[in-house]
Amino acid sequence: MKKQIDKELNIRDFTQGGIFRQLIKLAMPLMAVSFIQMTYNMVDIIWIGRLGSKSVAAVGTVGMLMWMMNSFALLSKVSAEVSIGQSIGAKRLDKAMLYASHTTTIAIIMGLFFAVFFFLFPQLTISFFRLEADITQEAVNYLRIISFGVPFMFLILNFSGIYIGTGRSDIPFYFNAIGLIINIILDPIFIFGFGFIPKMGSQGAALATTLSQLIVLLLFLRHLRRENGVLARFSFWIKLRKSYTINILKLGIPVAAMNVYFSIINMNLTRIASIHGGHLGVTSQTTGGQIEGITWNTSTGFATALGSFVAQNFAAGKMDRARHAHRYTLIVMTTLGVIVSASFMLFGSEIFSVFIPERQAYLAGGDYLFILGVSQIFSMLELTTQGMFNGVGKTTPPAIVSIVFNTLRVPLAFFLASTMGVNGVWWAITITSIIKGTFSATWYYFLQRKYK
Predict the structure, then answer these.
(1) Distance (Å, rounded) from C-alpha 96 to C-alpha 82?
(2) In terms of Cα–Cα distance, which of 205, 162, 186 is closest to 62?
(3) Residue 337 and residue 381: Cα distance in Å, rounded?
(4) How far, in Å, CA of 108 to CA of 154, rounded?
């Protein structure tokens, strides 16, 4: 009877069955979705790189703002993952549906707010980076177009969180893959022009991304409204109830605050890189950050899967299964971290040249990848541990670790950049990443003894 209910509501129960098989089955689509999101930006950079490093710098600064916006969107996404996962683990499907409605309503409100803000005040936000006048204007034009797609991004992330909470991480993968294919097709057409479509440069990349995101959102809406849609076709708009809203905020605010603050720190680091390295410093950080997403997105995918898996088993009182999942995840992530670190440190310039063929740009980018390669394993350790914290509902500890040590990056970057140039900024990132990974793992070690 239970299996029949799960099938009708499109959910998966992780409280029984093979641990590693279930973890991989949940994590692989999530990693694929993360890589798809990363590839969106990489495709843009590959094409825009043919316009010149200044255009890459303009688009990269807007990417920093989109990172901050996505961090706010994590409030509804992570809350959906954890609250729905725990509700299913506790066999309260009625609560799972109400949580889905609440997070969707919150996502709509936040998405519309940021869309209006970025469209009306693009100059205000872009001027923070202290770019050259022509780069600033290009970034402003790009941001105005991207702002139309901001509500789509909020809802896509929220719906992804709902599917992840129900164990259906495969659905976001399929829809985002379709969006990526459409973006790959539209990018060169809109950037360089084709037939009756004029050459639009970087603004064309913004239009291609917005249209692709719209199609992904429509696919989600169509699937959710089916007769056997996930969680029995829950309502998208609901009058917010106090108890549900407070719990969503308790779960989501620490994660969102951590990531928002992280994005603000990186915006400040980009500003320092602009002061000490010009537009090449900005290009190194923004493009290098996308390349570094290989480890970041893999870790995030596994950490999200781990959080969803742990949420169900924690609520069901099966922490042994959660600990086994944690151990498997650490083994996989450490192995990948070693491989990526070696690649960045040995072939950084060659990897960077694929995206930007200018010699000065890819040599500067090679320095970035070499330095960041030192800390990749520790970054993976931090994110994996964060998944365990989220799964047991303790979202505050990783937020504290991230906020405290990311704050140190700015004064450390100022100090090191004054003596080492722009490479000092990259060493500030690496040193604090090592500290964060070590501190997070130590904190969780003491916390998990409580659950034995």
Answers:
(1) 10
(2) 205
(3) 9
(4) 7
How far is the CA of 38 from the CAs of 121, 147, 159, 267, 369, in angstroms? 26, 19, 19, 19, 17
Per-residue pLDDT of the chain (452 residues; tens, 9 = 90+): 444 445 444 556 666 777 777 777 777 776 776 677 677 677 777 788 777 778 888 888 888 888 788 888 888 888 888 888 778 777 777 788 888 888 999 999 999 999 999 999 888 888 877 778 888 899 999 999 999 999 999 999 999 888 888 877 778 888 988 998 898 899 899 998 887 888 888 899 899 999 999 999 999 998 888 766 667 677 888 888 888 888 888 888 887 887 888 788 888 888 898 888 888 888 888 888 878 877 777 777 778 788 878 877 777 777 788 788 888 888 888 888 899 899 999 999 998 888 888 888 889 989 999 999 999 989 888 888 888 888 877 878 888 888 889 899 999 999 999 999 999 999 999 999 999 999 998 898 887 766 55
Relative orientation angle of helices 409-420 and 423-448, to the nearest 10 degrees: 150
| C-beta of residue 417 within 8 angstroms of C-beta of residue 424 | yes
CA distance 191 to 200: 5
In angstroms, the CA 452 to CA 440 distance is 19
* Tokens standing for residue 22: 């279930």
Contact (CB, 8 A) for 76 and 103: yes
User: How many other CB atoms are found less than 10 A from the CB of residue 407?
Assistant: 14
Residue with tokens 């506790």: 90
327 burial via Cβ count (<10 Å: 0-12, 13-18, 19+) = exposed
User: Is residue 219 within 8 Å of residue 163, measured between CB atoms?
Assistant: no
- Annotate 122-179 with DSSP letters as a single string: HHHHHGGG---HHHHHHHHHHHHHHGGGHHHHHHHHHHHHHHHHTT-THHHHHHHHHH
CA 316 from centre of chain: 29
Supply the pTM of this predicted model.
Answer: 0.70
The SS3 call for residue 355 is: coil
CB-based contacts of 309, cutoff 8 Å, min separation 6:
14, 22, 23, 26, 321, 322, 325, 391
The candidate with the shortest Cα–Cα distance to 38, out of 250, 241, 294, is: 294
Q: Which two tokens stand for residue 373?
A: 């390669």
Dist CA 175 CA 182 (whole Å): 11
Q: Are 362 and 349 spatial neighbours (Cβ–Cβ below 8 Å)?
A: yes
